[in-house]
Amino acid sequence: MLNYSEACERNKYAIATHLDAYLPNVRSVLEVGSGSGQHAIFLTSQHPHLIWQASDREQYLDALSINLEQYGISSLPHPIELDVSSHWPTRQYDALFSANSLHIMSWKEVEALFAGAGRAVSRRGWLFIYGPFRYRDSYTSESNREFDAWLKARDSESGIRDFEQVTQLAEQHGFALRVDVAMPANNQLLIWQRL
Predict the structure, then answer these.
(1) Which range (8-12, 50-54, 130-134, 155-159) has the least confidence?
(2) Average predicted confidence (pLDDT) for the chain
């Protein structure tokens, strides 16, 4: 597998455990920032009825395509190019999923992701976001504080996002928070529903 992610391998089981309550009633999923495609491969193997549309920026598409083809899951369409600040698919999906993406984006890109989700997710559809967050300006762990400092040293526009700001952004685009689940390794799974 090209571009293999150890983090995906570790967290896919925990994520699947919580999404199992939602995915049986979902037909189509748009994944933003699919990376290696490990979440797409694993979750569609658990839920074969899903049409899971993997996506990423142009420079990552070749490796992503190779990984998905390697596993030969028939319900996985060819991955598409998606830059949150640019082109979005014109069709709508029952859900949007993104893991470990908000903290590597600029805030402007985070805003673009939620605006895009507001257009791409169908009425009563779901928005699943996984990753680390801060609450009331506080980190959930010392390791997250150190990780945030590392992110900002690498790219001053990235960093662990504030739960309150992200939730406000989701609400502006028609989503209501349904679940906030503490996950392993000081991450959260945030689940919104489009009203």
Answers:
(1) 8-12
(2) 93
Half-sphere exposure of 10 (CA within 13 A, CB side): 10
User: How many Å apart are CA 123 and CA 125, to the nearest integer?
Assistant: 5
Residues 6+ apart with CB under 8 A from 165: none
Question: Dihedral through CA 108, CA 109, CA 111, CA 113, nearest 10?
Answer: 170
pLDDT value, residue 69: 87
Report the sign of the C-alpha dihedral through residues 56, 103, 36, 24, in that order.
Answer: negative
d(CA 27, CA 48): 10
Per-residue b/e over 155-186, b at no fewer than 16 CB within 10 Å?
eeebbbbebeebbebbeebbbeeeeeeebeeb
Q: Are 184 and 10 in contact (CB under 8 A)?
A: yes
- Contact between 97 and 31 under an 8 Å Cβ cutoff? The reply is yes
74 has a pLDDT exceeding 90: no
